[in-house]
Amino acid sequence: MKFQDKLQVLRKQKGMSQEKLAEKIGISRQAVAKWEAGQSYPDMNKLIILSDLFRISIDKLVKNYDDENCLYGYTKQDHYIDEKVIDFLCRAKKSTYAGKGLESTSSRPNSHDFQYVENDLKYIDTYLGGEKFAGEEALWCNDFPFWSMNYIGRIIADGFSGDFLKECLLLVPKEYPYRGPLVYQNGEYKYHCIVNGKFEWFNGYEEIFYNDIKVYECIFHGGCIK
């Protein structure tokens, strides 16, 4: 793949127009158009800016590759910082288990599976068990996996409410798009969630109290994959 083709792919994956890219670099839209048409080539200073912007080495950016995966190996993992992906993940969570969505076909014996798709993005949540459970949520772009989260939890006392848990998960915040909000209460039920790390690499713990007695706990961790 030549530089002009890679530049178009990278720009579109970022959801940027030629005008927007030109604005970030400090040049005219016509200059970007000429780069993508192969009519001109950026100088070293502009290549450094493009490298930082798209999180791809200059070497990978300028060298020709027959295999497009040489490019995708860098750009797909960059998807996680895109606000579009965070919004998609939150919508997917609200539309599946938390929103009492319909289960999809089991991927493993007796597994519970949920799937949500929008254009090139796909979300799959699959778990085993009930009162004691374990599962995984993951994201794909054009069937290329780039993020995953594993979780394991259990009910530890009487009074647990699955509906309250789903109520919490429906409130998943964009700042911490993993489980529920950091703190939430409804009547005698209280929900707490602790998160360490960032979207690229994180771990956390959630718990539910009923009448000040802990009735549920869940541990989760995950991050970007390639």
The total beta strand count reads 8
Question: Reading side by side through the largest sheet, how are the strands ordered?
Answer: 1-2-3-4-8-7-6-5
Strand % is: 25-35%
Distance between the termini: 20 Å
Tell me, briefly, the overall form: elongated
Q: How confident overall, as mean pLDDT?
A: 89
Low confidence ranges: 66-80
Query: Using only CA atoms, what is the Rg?
Result: 22 Å
Number of domains: 2
Biggest beta sheet summary: 8 strands, antiparallel
Helical segment tally? 8
Question: Topology of this protein?
Answer:
Layout (H helix, E strand, L loop, with lengths): L2 H11 L4 H8 L3 H9 L6 H11 L3 H5 L6 H7 L7 H13 L16 E7 L2 E9 L2 E10 L2 E12 L6 H8 L13 E4 L2 E10 L2 E10 L2 E12 L2
Antiparallel strand pairs: 1-2, 2-3, 3-4, 4-8, 5-6, 6-7, 7-8
Helix pairs in contact: 2-3
Keywords: DNA-binding
Organism: Crassaminicella thermophila
GO molecular function: DNA binding
What does this structure look like?
This is Helix-turn-helix transcriptional regulator. InterPro entries: Cro/C1-type_HTH, DUF5680, Lambda_DNA-bd_dom_sf. Pfam families: DUF5680, HTH_3. The chain has 226 residues and is an alpha+beta fold. It folds into 2 domains: 3-79, lambda repressor-like DNA-binding domains (434 Repressor (Amino-terminal Domain)); 83-224, no CATH class. It contains 8 helices and 8 strands; from the N terminus they run H-H-H-H-H-H-H-E-E-E-E-H-E-E-E-E. It has an 8-stranded antiparallel β-sheet with strand order 1-2-3-4-8-7-6-5, with helices on one face. The longest helix has 13 residues, at 83-95. The radius of gyration is 22 Å and the shape is elongated. The two termini are 20 Å apart. The model is unreliable at 66-80 (pLDDT under 50).
